[in-house]
Every structure is written in structure tokens, then in C-alpha cells.
Design brief:
By secondary structure, the protein is an alpha+beta fold. Helices cover 16% and strands 41% of the residues. It has 6 helices and 15 strands. The protein has an 8-stranded mixed beta sheet with strand order 5-6-2-1-15-14-11-12, with helices on both faces. A 4-stranded antiparallel beta sheet has the order 4-3-7-8, with no helix packed on it. β7 and β8 form a beta hairpin. The longest helix is centred in the N-terminal third of the chain and has 15 residues. The radius of gyration is 25 Å and the shape is elongated.
């Protein structure tokens, strides 16, 4: 979600900073709501951001951006989601909430960060239905709408989350690990993240034992916006995870500790795959094409919001199982030329454990 909060800001900036000699940007005020929403059937609570774009002859844009009253609607904005299966089957009234109180702070930037006003509703989304956002300003009569399908669930097939046989992930600096998954219906792009689980502790040679003091993980964003050829579901997709890049990630994330007894253990990895809807793909494609640095002016931003700006689309967050690292991979993390010296121990079955010989 955080990635798209930034995108919403860019959309506002594109609207307010456009240049043209054909009209006066500070002429009669036109109310312009800006929407960001990604409906996600993998969770039961949905959050949508609705801000407002503005211009003023009296106050500069940066000052207005820092004022929450300038960028947020109050109780005058009534928001609902309608669920359709051909005919209307459900209506959800969205609650206005402050993300700061829910552990969802807004990213720092030129726009006011607190409060962090969002609109939420609770529902079990159905991928065979479609959903329509309707927001009305009861003071001005302004109405905006947007519609999206919902992405279906999908499965990770390598590592095989449904296999009954044990599986260990193997990665050296010289090879790749081929990740596989079945495409989700209505998903056009995918983000891939690997979570690297590790432990830290103190080695006591007298008892040949390690007293563990910490267990944690580091998230590596493997790739963003991996494009699928179609939005049809149940098609096998693959991505080659680079061992060289993985080892460089570890080298960047961990510092050596000047203590011979301090030991790290490379435990396991977990894959997360996020599928994004066609509207999301179109947004990236359109803005990459029109927001180049050599453009003479910024063109209209892509939007699927009728009466406003922004985007309503869908995503699906798939969490893979946790898989142990292969013996050879533990040894490589400890002793390879890339990651040697970061206090990682080789596999416990390796001669010389917990040190490289």
C-alpha cells in the first residue's frame, strides 16, 4: 500500500503542476477528488484513500499541501462500495478512519502526514463479482465513481506449497532459483519478495553450543511489475531469482561484528507474490510513457475514476510457506567470497562448524 500512497501524491502533483498557455489554472475552482484504492480478496478489511486536489491564488501549493484541511474531506463526503453479480447484491458504507490510530502511518513528504484519513469497509470479496466505488460530497453534490474486478487467489508451485515432500531452497552466487506460480485471474502484473530468516547468538566452545539471542528476517524485493501475457488464470509463470543478487543483498544488509563468538545462522526463505490488476498495469504503462523528463509539459494522468483522478484496482497478496535453505547454500552464505566475514556459520553438519575452514 505504501508504494501507492506515493503514486497518489504524484497524481496530485501531475494535476496541479500542468503547464499550458490555453487556459488559466487558477480560474474558477473545479472540485477534483483523487482516489487510490486496491481491493484485496486475501484480507477482510479494505482501505481506500480519497483526497482532494486544489489550487489557490492566495496560498502557495506547498503550504496548502501541509494543511490536512486542504487535502482531506470531512464528514460531507459519503462513500460506499456496491457489489454486483450482474445485479446489485451488496452495499457497503465506508467508515472514515485515521490510519495513524491503526498502525498505518503515511509516508513523509510534502503532503500532511497526520492525520492519515482513510475510508474502510469489511467484506469477504468475491472474485466472480465486480465492485463499484461511489463517493458523494453532500455539500456540493459532486459524485465520483470507479469500478474494478477482484483478483482471484493463486498458488505458488515452486517451491510447492502443496507438496508433502520436504523441499530445501538452493542458491549459490553462480546459479538461479526458478520460482513458479499459477497466474491469478484478472492479474496482469506481479511483485516478488523474498523473506530471509536468520538467527543470531553467542558460541560457547567449551560446550560446543550456541545461545541464541535474536531471531529475525530481512525482506528483499526481488522484482516489481513482472508482466503476464494475459489476465487468464491458471497459467504457469516463472521467474529466475538471481543467486548473485541475493548474496549481494545479504552483503548490503548485514555488517560484520568484531566478536569471534558472535554467530549468525541462515535459516530459511519465504516468497511473497503480489498480483496487480489491469488498471494498475495500465497506470504504470501510461505514466511511464507520458511523464518522461524530456516532455515539454505533463500530460493528463491515467485514471479510471469518473469525475475525479486516481485509480481503483485490485491486488492479491500470496504468502508462500517457509522453506529451509539447502546445506550447500548455508555453507556458501558463510564462506563465499561475497558474504564471507559477516559472521554467518556454515551448516551444522559441515566440518569446522560454526566457522569456515
Amino acid at each position: 500500500m505504501n508504494k501507492w500512497l506515493v503514486a497518489a501524491g504524484i497524481t496530485i502533483a501531475a494535476f496541479t503542476n500542468s503547464c499550458s498557455t490555453d487556459f488559466d489554472l487558477n480560474a474558477d475552482f473545479i472540485e477534483t477528488p483523487v482516489v487510490y484504492g486496491l481491493l484485496d480478496a486475501s484480507v477482510d478489511t479494505q482501505y481506500i484513500r480519497i483526497n482532494r486536489a486544489y489550487l489557490s491564488d492566495e496560498v502557495d501549493g506547498l503550504t496548502l499541501a501541509a494543511d490536512p484541511n486542504s487535502i482531506y474531506y470531512g464528514d460531507e463526503l459519503q462513500v460506499r462500495i456496491e457489489e454486483y453479480n450482474g445485479a446489485l447484491v451488496n452495499t457497503y458504507i465506508l467508515e472514515r478512519v485515521d490510519g495513524d490510530t491503526l498502525g498505518m502511518p503515511k509516508q513523509d513528504g510534502v503532503f500532511a502526514t497526520s492525520p492519515n484519513i482513510l475510508y474502510r469497509f469489511v467484506a469477504d470479496l468475491d472474485y466472480t463479482h465486480y465492485y463499484k466505488l461511489i463517493a458523494e460530497n453532500t455539500e456540493t453534490g459532486k459524485v465520483i465513481t470507479a469500478t474494478t474486478n477482484v483478483i482471484d487467489s493463486f498458488s505458488i508451485t515452486r517451491p510447492d506449497d502443496e507438496s508433502v515432500f520436504p523441499f530445501a531452497v538452493s542458491l549459490s552466487p553462480q546459479n538461479v532459483f526458478q520460482l513458479r506460480w499459477k497466474s491469478a485471474q484478472d492479474a496482469k502484473i506481479y511483485d516478488i519478495t523474498m523473506r530471509f530468516h536468520y538467527r543470531e547468538g553467542i558460541y560457547y566452545p567449551e560446550g560446543d553450543s550456541i545461545h541464541y539471542t535474536f531471531s529475525g528476517y530481512k525482506d528483499w524485493v526481488v522484482e516489481r511489475n513482472v508482466e503476464a501475457e494475459s489476465t487468464d488464470g491458471n497459467v504457469t509463470l516463472t521467474y529466475d531469482v538471481s543467486g548473485e543478487t541475493f548474496y549481494n543483498f545479504i552483503k548490503t544488509e548485514f555488517d560484520p561484528v568484531d566478536d569471534f563468538s558472535f554467530i549468525r545462522i541462515a535459516d530459511s526463505v519465504q516468497f511473497f507474490i503480489d498480483g496487480g490488476g489491469l488498471e494498475l498495469f495500465t497506470y504504470f504503462e501510461y505514466n511511464n510513457a507520458t511523464l518522461g523528463i524530456t516532455e515539454g509539459q505533463i500530460t493528463d494522468a491515467y485514471t479510471n475514476v469518473e469525475g475525479g483522478l486516481g485509480i481503483l484496482s485490485s491486488r492479491y497478496h500470496k504468502e508462500g510457506h517457509i522453506y529451509p535453505l539447502a546445506i550447500q547454500t548455508r555453507d556458501s552464505i558463510a564462506c563465499s567470497s561475497v558474504t564471507n566475514g559477516l559472521n554467518f556459520a556454515p551448516d551444522g553438519s559441515t566440518f569446522g562448524f560454526p566457522y569456515c575452514n
